[in-house]
UniProtKB/TrEMBL annotation:
It comes from the Bacteria. The lineage of its organism: Bacteria, Pseudomonadati, Bacteroidota, Cytophagia, Cytophagales. This is DUF6000 family protein. InterPro entries: DUF6000.
Amino acid sequence: MSFKKLWTKLFTRNDVFDEIALHSAGAIIRHRNPFENIEVPRNEDDLTEEFIEKWVVPFYSVSLSNANDITIETFAETAVAMSPDIVLKLLGDFDWRTRITGAYFSAINNYHEFEDIIGKHLLKSEVCYAGTGYCLALATFGTDNAKQYLVRYLDYYLGRKDLWFDQADAFCALAYLDKSQADKLIKKWNSFVANKQNWNLENHIKQLSNSLQALDQIREIKTLYLE
């Protein structure tokens, strides 16, 4: 089966092999939403194993909020060789691993040209796990456009108490960019977390702060490689 076609199977009856592939890609919770028909770039061809081994495997499972020196060095070294074409392929794949990696390097290399793709991915929320990377990238870009993606996401998904997605990451990213705007959503936030006893906003704020510091360190080391 061609994995590039997985996105077309989100809301259809599938055989067991398609279901396993969708689950592995991160499409664990499939849900109807107002953003599902927004178009995003899709790869025409599947990514090769060599491509994934080089550009994805070392990075997708890393939490930048507690990255060690080796991890930061690896990100910095790879960021030098990274290009917009590679990131576009990462973001155009239907898998959380490739997408979060694409979001990470968009943030590291300040690839603002991918702001709309990342924002749309966040709104559509086709796959789990990648949202942390999307929110981090949008927080890094820091534009009004990035902020509006976070506002649109929160305005809808804070009303979906059944979907335990990336609301905390998005709320922290918005508060980082515009606290007054986040304050306007605090009632929705409190209502959303009323049935989520283990959701701790302070922990997410700390994770975002740590991740932003890690990005600064990665960029500093990258600069040394370029000298």
